[in-house]
Design a protein that fits this description.
alpha+beta; four-stranded antiparallel sheet; homodimer; 11 helices; 251 residues; 46% helix
């Protein structure tokens, strides 16, 4: 048994080229409203969105993200902000101190909530015919994003998403590591994970070849090229500047 | 213009009571496969799932999460594992070192990917009529989860989700902070966020009263009660033990 939701998820692709047609304002409002119902840790609602429609600002974000044409070409850019300013003010209203942003638990729970919201936004947008791509590249210079968007203390821009009408040519769905090396039964299976990498290197190589992109690296090479360096090297310092601390705390 | 996806997202609720009916294996496979197509940073696929069907193990997870009946009553529990073991092995195959798990960027990107996957799993499951609730409570004792699921170095259990057939009575959709205090235009607006908290305290109070739960705390009180403490105080230490380090690194 399948359905429209499953089919949409199975066919999901990052869309990096846009037609230039506008995002309808009523669609955008529906996307935001639908995504807002996504779950959030302890109902803290520690995610806020900054919706950028201004083309000059979108171009600035594209530059901050490393000069990404897929960002510059988007009609709308949404920045997902981990927001412990809201919860801190709520705690103050209740006459309590607020410690969570100065803990590893707070940062981890906040980042997971950001991911939840990102997927909800993208799912809603895609259902209305729009295309999106997550943009982690804003973490190349979080300080610049903080200044551009006027983000206060206890908030942090963790990721963004483009939004626009897809160009006529839709990219093919990209294969994933074998399902049994991704979703394991009862216990982690290092053998399956190992075998999955080797099989996926072959699968992805064939897929790139089919796309006419024979020079693209396969999984191992591509992953190594990213993860042999820490490509965004200021996250801890930028978090600290915003009032966060990744540490355990006894109460 | 709305559609089935938007309607599902707008009506989303955490489901904490299950009928006890089984999750069909073909549905579970479809949920896993659909969710796997969710986006992932640099196509690293640094998320693995451990699917628990064994009822004894589910009961153990419920205990680890603090004695949660909603976990013990689930038919299936899925643990979302931040997995830099996979990428590390991929890097080794390519003959490169792997630094990313010893960086703030790696942990943050991994946690965002976990959230993306969580929402994809829940969206797929709900479309097939199942109910879910995210379970951050596994972070109460990550070490116990690591042992129970046999998680190797460079992996970490960040969050889980229950899965089951909802009981007959479906809870009402819970209101959120005002849309204009959640999704802001162009720049963060501290005034809107402040006003939103105050308005939401009233909205949520009315909603609890309508549910016949007049003793439930409103937003400010509830948030303060969580965030005045660091309720899961071992996350940084547990990450370190698994080989992670939350730090900036120059290459």
């Amino acid at each position: 048994m399948s359905n429209a939701v499953i089919q949409q998820l199975l066919n999901r692709r990052s869309i990096r080229q846009f037609s230039g047609e506008p995002v309808r304002e009523e669609d955008l409002q529906l996307i935001l409203k639908a995504a807002q119902q996504a779950p959030t840790s302890v109902n803290g609602q520690q995610v806020s969105l900054i919706v950028t429609r201004d083309k000059d600002t979108i171009r600035k974000i594209a530059e901050i993200a490393g000069g990404q044409p897929q960002v510059a070409g988007a009609e709308v850019f949404i920045t997902l902000v981990m927001d412990f300013n809201r919860t801190s003010e709520a705690a103050a209203l209740a006459g309590e101190k607020h410690l969570i942003e100065r803990s590893a638990e707070g940062i981890v729970a906040g980042a997971v909530d950001i991911g939840i919201m990102l997927q909800a936004l993208q799912t809603a947008a895609e259902s209305l015919g729009y295309g999106t791509t997550p943009i982690g590249g804003i973490r190349r210079d979080p300080g610049a994003m903080i200044e551009l968007l006027g983000l206060p203390a206890k908030t942090f821009p963790l990721v963004g998403t483009t939004l626009g009408v897809p160009a006529a040519t839709r990219p093919q769905v990209k294969p994933r590591v074998p399902l049994d090396s991704f979703a394991m039964n009862e216990r982690y299976d290092t053998g399956k994970v190992s075998a999955g990498i080797r099989q996926y290197d072959v699968t992805l190589r064939q897929w790139w070849d089919e796309q006419g992109l024979g020079t693209m690296p396969t999984y191992s090479t591509s992953t190594a090229s990213y993860y042999k360096t820490v490509y965004f090297p200021t996250i801890a310092a930028d978090l600290t500047r915003q009032g966060f601390l990744f540490a355990d705390q006894a109460d």
